[in-house]
Amino acid sequence: MSSDTLSDVLRAVRLTGAVFIDVNVTVPWATFAPKSHHLIPLIMPDAQHLISYHLVTEGECYAVQKGHEPIRMQAGDLIVFPHGDHHSLTSEPSLRAPASFDVSELDLTSQRPWKIVGGGTGSDRIKLVCGFLGCDVRPFNPLLAALPDQIHCSGKNPDCNARLSHFYQLAVMESHGQRIGGESILAKLSELLFIELVRMYLESLPKEQTGWLAGLRDRHVGQALSLMHAHPARDWTLEALSGEVGLSRSALSDRFTEFVGVPPMQYLTKWRMQIASGLLTQGQSNIAKIAVDVGYESEAAFSRAFKKVVGMPPAAWRKSRQNGAGNSLNP
Question: What residue segments make up the domains of the chain, in order of their start?
Fold first, then answer.
């Protein structure tokens, strides 16, 4: 497996943890979390996409998502919704109480983590640390496309507990302490939690699993991905790549497509456009230089490729991102 490729993608899609909610409620209690794109203007306007997660620190509750069985969550459990789908958190899976948690009613100027208190009249208490991570989905985020609707890590799982317990302890301390610098600690902590969970998910995939993540651990596909990510501007051809990997052109193309879903050269083009989009957003290089940096001999050739993949010319992309229109770029 090429762990560098995973790190490369995480950097390029600008994974950023920024928003945290400390929930302390009594039962019965229920909340409905809307699809995350509805929350972007409120809590992370510059993000293209929000990944939501919930860490239970005391008591138990249920995570309910349409089309899936309710998941019982206990202290030490973590659940992530990579695609930001709407879901509910409830003290009972059948509870349909009015939402007690409405982000739009929070005091967005107050110190984070924001506090949610209240709930029902029962004595049992539920404590959660809820958060969001922002990332890019366009032009190309192969990791997000490879993840399921939800990833649940049980605190009773010895491996999960061993690898996430230190994150859990820090999250509890920082979310409850309101210490100076706590917001930054929680931001980095949520990113680390997500990355560790992705690695655990990858390790749990069955041998016959396909997809971009599974491709990372395949000897030939993983090496091809690593080479293209390490040298995206190189004048790659299928013949050159197959020679490096040690497979015939047809064998590499078939195997790569089976795992990743697109042929190698098409993947390379998409990845180059993701790199270019980041350089355009930063605004520090002219388009001609960016074209060379991602492997194109001319600005015109790069602009044609960028528009074909992204749907707009490079200059228009740069302008839209600099105007803070990240959310409008969502499909």
Answer: 14-204, 218-329
Domain at 218-329: CATH code = 1.10.10.60
Q: What are phi and psi of 297, to 5 degrees?
A: -80, -20
Helix (H) or strand (E) holding 84: none
CATH architecture group of domain 14-204: Sandwich (2.60)
Residue 276 has pLDDT above 90, yes or no: yes
User: Which two structure tokens, joined as six digits, stand for 112?
Assistant: 């984070």
Amino acid 109: pLDDT: 60
Q: Which tens digits make up the pLDDT trace of 220-248?
A: 999 999 999 999 999 999 999 999 999 99
Pairing of strands 16-26, 114-119: parallel
Residue-wise pLDDT tens digits, 253-264: 999 999 999 999
Residues 129 and 17 sit within 8 Å (Cβ to Cβ): no
Residue 2 has pLDDT above 70, yes or no: no
Residues whose CB is less than 8 angstroms from the CB of residue 88 and which lie 6 or more positions away in sequence, other chains included: 30, 31, 32, 33, 62, 63, 64, 65
Q: How many angstroms separate the CA atoms of 305 and 254, rounded?
A: 24
In contact, 271 and 311? CB cutoff 8 Å: no
Residues, the chain: 331
